[in-house]
Design goal:
Oligomer: single chain
Helix content: over 70%
Distance between the termini: 72 Å
Order of helices and strands: HHHHHHHHHHH
Strand content: under 5%
Number of domains: 1
Number of strands: 0
Shape: elongated
Number of helices: 11
Largest sheet: none
């Protein structure tokens, strides 16, 4: 009898005796900040790994603008003259082609968003811990990192284009590259988020992004009249202006950099707001 009473009075060792599901409180849940950072890190690392494996992208993104710069620049050299300056068209055209490298990197980096939606990867990201704002930041961080690497490769030929390394303001160039790519990637992210096919993306790119690049002062300086007004309101104009000022090592770089900073912040906020829509779901 005493043995039975001792057993009855002893504390229960049954994990279910308290009525609490086993492991419910023991499961380790990462903090919100840790989940956000993990989302950004994962998407950034994924873009880096894809770049490492797809080595043909290095050749296409760098070699194509190089050929474009040389062929167009050589053809226009005899017919180009800036009043009051002794500058060849190849020298004038180089900052514009550098902006084209950043633009193409942003385009091809964000078009993967449509491919990820079609393959189902994006749906997996959307249900993972972490907000959609972290998704935006992770994608922008990955594309910007790729753009910096590809821009650095293209800048190797700067001394042969009329921009010696010792005269370049590298801080201005680096800031212009980063801010320009953040802004362009944000806009391209919005396009890729809202569109559901690569065909529609390429069509919009041809109608909007490429004309903006042409009218940015990349291929010809701003003149007078309506065209000059359009170029002043073109955000890519400030990318070209900042890079040209940095490469020349003289001039006012503060104004275009401040404009690019405002555009970059506004672009990221806009992309984060658009990402709250259901455009990321499969059509």
């Amino acid at each position: 009898m005493s043995q039975s009473m001792n057993v009855a009075e002893s504390p229960s060792t049954d994990p279910n005796a308290s009525g609490v599901m086993p492991g419910k409180d023991a499961v380790h849940r990462p903090s919100a900040m840790r989940a956000e950072l993990a989302m950004v890190w994962t998407l950034w690392r994924r873009d880096m790994l894809r770049l490492q494996r797809e080595r043909s992208r290095w050749l296409g993104v760098v070699l194509q603008p190089l050929l474009f710069w040389f062929l167009i620049g050589s053809g226009m050299a005899d017919n180009f003259q800036i009043e009051g300056q002794d500058q060849s068209y190849l020298t004038f055209f180089f900052p514009g082609v550098l902006v084209m490298v950043l633009l193409f990197t942003s385009i091809f980096g964000t078009i993967a968003l449509i491919e990820d939606r079609q393959s189902g990867f994006l749906q997996g990201v959307l249900v993972a811990p972490g907000s959609r704002s972290s998704l935006v930041l992770g994608k922008i961080a990955g594309v910007t990192s790729i753009a910096i690497l590809q821009a650095a490769l293209f800048l190797v030929i700067a001394p042969w284009t009329g921009y010696p390394f010792v005269a370049v303001s590298w801080g201005v160039v680096a800031a212009a590259v980063v801010l320009s790519c953040v802004f362009m990637t944000s806009i391209c992210f919005v396009m890729a988020w809202l569109l559901h096919s690569t065909q529609a993306y390429h069509a919009l790119m041809s109608v909007v992004l490429i004309p903006l690049w042409v009218l940015s002062g990349s291929m010809f300086p701003a003149g007078e009249g309506v065209l000059s007004t359009v170029m002043q309101f073109n955000p890519m104009t400030y990318s070209v202006e900042a890079l040209r000022t940095g490469l020349e090592g003289s001039g006012d770089a503060l104004t275009p950099l401040l404009v690019l900073l405002v555009l970059s912040v506004a672009g990221v906020l806009f992309a984060a707001a658009i990402s709250q829509r259901q455009g990321g779901r499969a059509a």
